[in-house]
Amino acid sequence: MRIWGNARDLAAKTPDSRNRYVDFLRAASILVVVIGHWLIATVYYQDGSIQPGHLLEITNGLHWMTWLFQVMPIFFIVGGFSNSITLDSAHKKGLDYATWLAARLNRLVAPLLFLLIGWGAIALAQYLLGVSAEVIQYTSRSSLIPTWFLAIYIMVVLLAPVTHAMWRRWGFASFWLFVALAAITDWLFFAGFEWAGWSNYFWVWLGVHQLGYAWREDRLGGATMLLGYAAVAFAVLYALTHLGPYPMAMVGSPGEDVSNSLPPKITLLVLGVIQLGLLLSLERPMRKALDGLRLWTATVLINSMIMTVYLWHITLMIAVTAALFYAGGFFLGIEPGSSDWWWSRIPWVLVLLALLMPVAFLLAAFERRPFDQTASMPHAARQVLGAIMISLGIAIIAMYGFAGTPVAGMDIGAFAFVIVGAAISGLLFQRRVAT
């Protein structure tokens, strides 16, 4: 209970001015992603071998559930809110862009490096033990897929001072600019210029990020107006998926020619508006509930290791699956999608959660270590270059894993890009607070 006691002590010291609902949504959205990944990945043990699968491929009728489990828009909205606060705080303190950026990147990149180096070692060990390239690719790619989020979020952070200035000058016009760019990009994609679709990693998520600025400045109206936004956005999303060329699933779905998430489509931006309207309409009662120490302590505890939870949850699932496989396929012989399989998901999720939390708390030392803003910072240009290299490297590894890149050695090159980028930007060794 020491962990809970420490979190409770921190929770009790929280100033009344803090919007605790922002932290709650950050924690809740990541937990929804984690549970969604644990449910969507199916493993079936039969005749001494494992058959990996995808729930959306097995049960097409569940694609609508991705409208609930695709909550990455919430994280970008929360990111916009938080980035707005830190930018204003840095301005008041007279901190330059380099100092602000170093602090933001430090929290994101430190746990990422630990995961990536860990999986580099695991992949090397698998190779030396004679494990097939297919198994190395499947296990590493599955475990490192969550890093795609950081590849684009790091870029959003780099651009935050620009997008924040756009918001301050143009308000909602800056949001609609990104909406227009996302729509044009989709039009080009469906017109045959599929390469153009990859730019929507910027337009879609920058547009969602602008909504966080609007929330922070209380520009979204009351509960009635927010529910109105959600209703209109729902109608638009329904039309896009039922009358337009977009699939129902809001995550990648095997067997679909078009994906709403790879690359992102404007559907995810519309989904973000739905989620924004629904969740912010509950802000007042939720902020009152979060005044209670118990719920707020739980929120503080999860947020203290949130990136570690997100980055390691699939690795843990693969480790547990491997252990069950070597135990004779115990618990894995239930046919995915059957009623028995659905009932078995309750203990499956509970056991994984029970294992993940202590593991994450131990591994989150990199994430929790305070940052020394008084230390000498690398020049902003170095940090930007290093961050771009990190984003490019992890994007490649998240897409292909180790031992599965289309060009031989591309995975090793991407890994080196991340390490060199971290070194250039001064993030390879996390700064300690001066004592």
Portion of residues in beta strands equals under 5%
Largest sheet: 2 strands, antiparallel
Structural class: mainly alpha
The gyration radius over C-alpha positions equals: 22 Å
**How many strands in all?**
2
> What's the end-to-end separation, in Å?
28 Å
Helix tally?
Answer: 19
User: Overall pLDDT, averaged?
Assistant: 90
Overall number of domains: 1
The poorly predicted ranges are none
Query: Order of strands side by side in the largest beta sheet?
Result: 1-2
Helix and strand run: HHEEHHHHHHHHHHHHHHHHH
Shape: globular
Percent of residues in helical segments? 55-70%
List keywords for this structure.
two-stranded antiparallel ribbon; globular; 70% helix; mainly alpha; 435 residues
Write the layout of secondary structure elements.
Layout: H1 2-12, H2 20-40, E1 41-46, E2 49-54, H3 55-58, H4 66-69, H5 72-93, H6 97-128, H7 133-144, H8 148-170, H9 172-190, H10 200-216, H11 223-242, H12 266-280, H13 283-289, H14 293-303, H15 306-326, H16 339-363, H17 365-368, H18 380-400, H19 410-424
Antiparallel strand pairs: 1-2
Helix pairs in contact: 1-14, 2-5, 2-14, 2-15, 5-8, 5-10, 5-12, 6-7, 6-8, 6-15, 6-18, 6-19, 7-15, 7-18, 8-9, 8-10, 8-18, 9-10, 10-12, 11-12, 15-16, 18-19
